[in-house]
């Protein structure tokens, strides 16, 4: 019996120019590699609108044969990716009265790759919207009981995982509706979460349109479906792509569906905004690494949702949760997970963390369950507990199905000590409240950090959250419709507000360029334009050969045979380099900026560096004079130092170009090996 293997994705690069039939090519390739099965049975998806490739069921032997065929850039498994407020825009300095051009904002289309959308939400009403922009070429194919409108102008679902339950663009998870409303939701008055965090809910660009690409079903988010969404969205005519998804760890560019899709989007001047990952605070944890898209960290706002628990001895502790339940001011008896377990079913560890199948519901019912886990609420809810006290060091408030408070290590130990001190332990969990957080913004502890494990010379992450930055990118696009993806990315990075190194674990590796500033981003003064030639040269410098680079770019690019550059030379708005420990170094970063501000302007360079630095930064020339708009000027940043150590593995500075009106900031980072 022939064994049909798992799904693999074959990436064949750009679509060739002229008359070309991708499907014919794909079927021809199949004829050469398939061993008994038919092409119809094996083919899962053909990518043919915006780039070239296909997804197919292959045996391991067929995969090996395909990988060795001429014209194949890469072949990789169809892996599953993971999914990575009313006050937030005001905190960013992006008030409702910020300058806008409504007619142009209404022409901006944001493609959201996520779990779908709930079209009946007020955030997506099409009241006062005109017809879709003329450039729109997409469709509304949302499945059963789903209708688009003049706000949600397109919808598609992708389901290579054959999830028979989740077969509509309608969002049954909530994640997609959340991200779409942040980026471009309408203004909705008097919104709150059961009375918490009340205010006006609004997206970054309320007049913009949404095109929804459901790439995540209940089973997960498949690589083949993400590439299919890119293939469609680029051809459909979106302007910005927001994708809050990622792998657990970074992968090679040619095996990363988001990096591949974003590359071809960039070639059409479409900027992709991607979440950097939720594996912080460890270094090297960022999974969004390609320089042709914006990778976004997560940071805090100045509104903190807290909760309190009062123990039977009168001790009050503060934790985090969105707890909208009231316990009527009553004390409830407490029980520890390990004291309420089915001893024959589970070991001590599983009992302490309150795994559902370990709990004796008759012992738990009507009590507050104490759990040494971030997920103890699931078991507590199932067992009929009246509430739960859990552990969580992230500092992030989550929503729970019953009265719950999450405490850090030290406070949870206080609860344990009290529990052990009495035979009648009791507690009450109070309703959550919103307080002012004067320490904000800081990068969230769960947010992934650099350095970049795939391209060490590229530093990522301007903090906020992915849909917020997508909304800001759309805002910039509404003022500058003709700008390239790299110009918008540069504007977001160079106008970002500086953040304190001392307030963020791993400093600049956590916050990258700084905290995005929507208002300043529309007038950056100078931009670092990155062309297709720049990117193909970077691929050459990374070791890709001429044949592969030509397939990816779709042009006649050639990799120099004699001279090998470095990815650090990419015309990118930050400057990063890895150096070996304890060795003197001298590194040069060539850069070119384009004047998008006033004619007849002069910019002077300033280097901001902390006291007692271990490196020196020079800029040559230190002054740039522009006579015309769109004029380009080049300079070199020279960084020297005596050596880096694992005890102090990162040194950073900031290069600032200023004409007295505009401030163009770029981080300069040198790092060595970490003690990890």
UniProtKB/TrEMBL annotation:
Q: Which GO terms describe its molecular function?
A: serine-type endopeptidase activity
**Every Peptidase S8/S53 domain range:** 106-458, 466-499
Q: Which residues form the Inhibitor I9 domain?
A: 7-84
Q: Which lineage is the organism of this entry classified under, starting from the top rank? A: Eukaryota, Viridiplantae, Streptophyta, Embryophyta, Tracheophyta
Q: Gene behind this chain?
A: SBT4.6_5
The Subtilisin-like protease fibronectin type-III domain extends over 569-670
InterPro entries hit by this protein = Peptidase_S8/S53_dom, Peptidase_S8/S53_dom_sf, Peptidase_S8_subtilisin-rel, Peptidases_S8_3, S8pro/Inhibitor_I9, S8pro/Inhibitor_I9_sf, SBT, Subtilisin-like_FN3
Task: Identify its protein family.
Answer: Belongs to the peptidase S8 family.
State the UniProt keywords alphabetically: Hydrolase, Protease, Serine protease, Signal
**Organism source for this protein?**
Vitis vinifera
Q: What Pfam families does its record include? A: fn3_6, Inhibitor_I9, Peptidase_S8
- PROSITE patterns from the xrefs? SUBTILASE
Q: What is this protein called?
A: Subtilisin-like protease SBT4.6
**Biological-process GO terms, alphabetical:** proteolysis
Can the keyword Hydrolase be found in this entry's annotation?
A: yes
